[in-house]
What does this fold into?
Amino acid sequence: MRILRVIAGEFKGRSIETVSNNLTRPTSDKVKESLFNIIGPYFSGGNGLDLFAGSGGLGIEAMSRGINRVVFIDQQAQATRMIKKNLTNLKLLNRAEVYQNDAFRALKVLGKRGLQFDYIFLDPPYKKDLYQQLLEEIDTQQIADKDCMIICEHDSNLVLPISAAGFKQVRTEKYGRTTTITFYKKDDDNE
It folds into this structure.
């Protein structure tokens, strides 16, 4: 098990335990710090969705920096248990929802509930190229607020589409040899 830390905000320096298996790849502190400097670095409220949440590091960082509520989704029971443990340790459970579910089923449920998000973190397993389908489902379920930022962490060998399902790429940053973050917003030209 690796221990990561909250980079900034209310819980700066506090530890986050990670899931200890080969199915989960936590976002490194360096990448996390950089991506939040791009989208924030601090927030005055809002709602986040941490899909493929793993140990919950991205959603917890967002909450530490001022996001009101985060919904955490992961398919693995071990991951959702760890997210709940981390949220409990930081006394954040009352500002979060944690579900063990398949990503696409979860998006349908969130859409039926009429929830909308200001920030959506997508970090599926690198081997699965799900980004196009995920963006399409996010659009279909209408869960992205009009100013929503979608943050996709992916393998650097994978080039994501410039536009997909009503969203357009606004920035791409490469970290080391393996990790790239691609940022999407709604494409106003398609409305």
